[in-house]
Amino acid sequence: MKHNGESIVASVDSIGMEFVYYYSKDTGDSDSLYLRDIYYIYNDFNRVFHSSWSFEQNLQKMNNRTGTIFTLSGDTINFLDIKFNNDMINPELFIKTGINQSEFIPLLHIEKINTDYSILEYSIERGFFYPFYTFLIGATLDIRMKWDKDRRMIPQVWDQYNDLLPKASFIGQYETGVTYESISYIIPISVLTSMIYDLWKQKHSFYFTPVYKEEIFGRNMYVFSLKHIAFTYTQRMIFRIEKTKFGNNVFRWIRKNSS
Q1: Could you tell me if 4 and 208 are in contact, meaning their C-beta atoms sit under 8 angstroms apart?
Q2: CB 106 within 8 Å of CB 69
Q3: Is 225's pLDDT higher than 90?
Q4: Whose C-alpha in 11, 40, 64, 239 is 20 to 30 A from the C-alpha of 118?
Q5: Is the torsion defined by CA of 143, 148, 149, 150 positive or negative?
Q6: Considering the chain, what percentage of its residues have pLDDT values greater than 90?
Q7: Taking the CB of residue 86, how many other CB atoms lie within 10 A of it?
Q8: φ/ψ (deg, to 5) at 166
Q9: What average pLDDT does range 37-49 have in this prediction?
Q10: Residues 6 or more apart from 239 whose CB is under 8 A from it?
Q11: Are 139 and 179 in contact (CB under 8 A)?
Q12: Residue by residue, what is the 3-state secondary structure of the chain?
């Protein structure tokens, strides 16, 4: 299953660091697919034996929220709370439908889940931190470009970062920083834009299993994260280096001396 809901029916041969190798059910030909393009893999017994980082993040985002479940059989279930188990051998979720009413539902019997709009907390967080880190990185680069070897380090660093701060005499900031005005309106605009974008993209809807194999999800379920992209890229680079003779010797020496 890809992030957009496109399904490939196949017999999985093996799963490596970067690829999953399989035989197509329709043609019998062998083929491969990047793991980064796969949302999750499940078998005929509804057991998930590979799930992507995006899949796990989406489950985490839905935990402890209210909303509505749409099942493959056409049922609609409103819930007051929801929790997912970590057992992908028997993937299911636990929902509370009333004060003393609750039930378990198999995960792969669900077409989609719509949560309440409290999910927009992630939009607010993203809208705040992206411009904030941009200003922070900009100030750091400015320090490097304007570095004066004849001055002490702390005053030079403070001269740049205090531009991001409002007037605060109790910490020695007697004037509002020249960049603070930009921050004070760019960050709220960024937060609002992020919320509107996620509402437009229906980020409160989480899809699991298409009703028919030919159909796709109502939205792409990929979760973008620069941190995760950097982490997986680093992992792949280490894996490739370790496969070389020199890299294997280096990592073997590191493991030997660190144990």
Answers
A1: no
A2: no
A3: no
A4: 40
A5: negative
A6: 42
A7: 7
A8: -80, 175
A9: 88
A10: 17, 18
A11: yes
A12: CECCCCCCCEEEEEECCCEEEEEECCCCCEEEEEHHHECEEECCCCCEEEECHHHHHHHHHHCCCCEEEEECCCCEEEECEEEECCCCCCCEEEEEEECCEEEEEEHHHEEEEEECHHHHHHHHHHHHHHHHHHHHHHHHHHHHHCCCCCCCHHHHHHHHHHHHCCCEHHHCECCCCCCHHHHHHHHHHHHHHHHHHHHHCCCCEEECCCCCCCCCCCCCCCCCCHHHHHHHHHHHHHHHHHHCHHHHHHHHHHHHHHC
- Lowest mean per-residue pLDDT among 78-82, 95-99, 160-164, 197-201: 160-164
Cβ pair 245, 236 in contact under 8 A:
no
Q: Is the pLDDT of residue 138 over 80?
A: no
Please state, in angstroms and rounded to a whole number, the distance separating the CA atoms of residues 125 and 138: 20
* Side chain identity at residue 164, one-letter code: L
Residues 56, 113: Cα–Cα separation, whole Å: 15
